[in-house]
Design brief:
The protein is α/β, with parallel strands linked by helices and 252 residues long. The chain has helices at residues 3-16, 41-55, 73-78, 84-108, 130-138, 156-166, 200-206, 213-221, 236-241, and strands spanning 21-26, 60-65, 113-117, 126-127, 142-146, 171-176, 181-182, 194-195, 197-199, 226-230, 248-251.
Length: 252
């Protein structure tokens, strides 16, 4: 493909995308796949392929991933560890392990990536600096944020919203195993009704669970929309960014 044709193709692809820069929030548990613990290489490969598709359409992608498939700070503190701070730091390290795994999977598909961590560990990742992260995104690299906010007592949901605000993302996409927000848990209630759009205030008044309260409030105060969607369904990420009605959008 000539450089002129390639430029026209990329320009047209970018025009079709609903958002230019996104923050994709993935749970650590999502990497379990069909396993009981650890990282499922097939799930990891599937996620890498989904992310590659949107990168090829010119979308700038930043990612925050949890560590629940390896260790959760809250669970650790409640399961015999007396020091919540230590447990949370262990959880942060788990997110770095997942970040390294996702980085490797993406680079196997020839997608350039950078792993940035809130806790310095220069041998394996770059320290988080906002300007550096934005520059990587502008160069078309997928940026993975590890170790949460770097502080105990804050979840990776909060880290996702914080990083999204800092890098001026257009939207937070929360990839889950459920295809949106429902009136009640659809896995327990077959009569649960899905919302296509809902406001922050309605989520609060109905007592619905989207993110932890700190993250949710931070997103609302900064007028940053959140879209909850099923990341495990092939093609959903690209369809969502192409403007199809996928998942549930939470907005002002």
């Amino acid at each position: 493909m000539s450089s002129i044709l390639k430029f026209v193709y990329l320009s047209n692809s970018q025009k079709k995308m609903q958002y230019k820069r996104i923050l994709l929030k993935l749970s650590g548990e999502a990497l379990l796949g069909d396993q009981q613990y650890g990282i499922d290489p097939n799930r990891l490969k599937a996620y890498a392929q989904e992310i590659k598709k949107v990168v090829e359409h010119g979308v700038e992608v930043a990612i925050v991933i949890g560590g629940g498939n390896i260790f959760r700070g809250v669970s650790g503190a409640g399961g015999g560890m007396n020091d919540r701070v230590q447990a949370d730091y262990m959880g942060m390290l788990a997110t770095v392990i997942n970040g390294l795994a996702l980085q490797s999977a993406l680079e196997d598909t020839e997608v350039q990536t950078r792993l940035l961590t809130a806790i310095k560990m220069e041998q394996i990742a770059e320290p988080y600096i906002k300007r550096r992260a934005v520059r990587h995104l502008e160069k078309g690299r997928v940026v993975i944020f590890g170790s949460g906010t770097g502080n105990p007592y804050f979840t990776t949901d909060t880290a996702a919203v914080l990083r999204a605000i800092e890098i001026d993302a257009d939207v937070i996409l929360k990839g889950t195993r459920v295809d949106g927000v429902y009136t009640s848990d659809p896995e327990k209630n077959i009569n649960a009704v899905k919302f296509e759009n809902i406001t922050f205030k309605d989520v609060m008044s109905r007592g619905l669970k989207v993110m932890d309260m700190t993250a949710f409030t931070l997103s609302e105060e900064n007028k940053l929309p959140i879209i909850i969607f099923d990341m495990n369904k092939q093609g959903n990420l690209l369809k969502l960014l192409s403007g199809e009605n996928i998942g549930t959008k939470v907005d002002i």
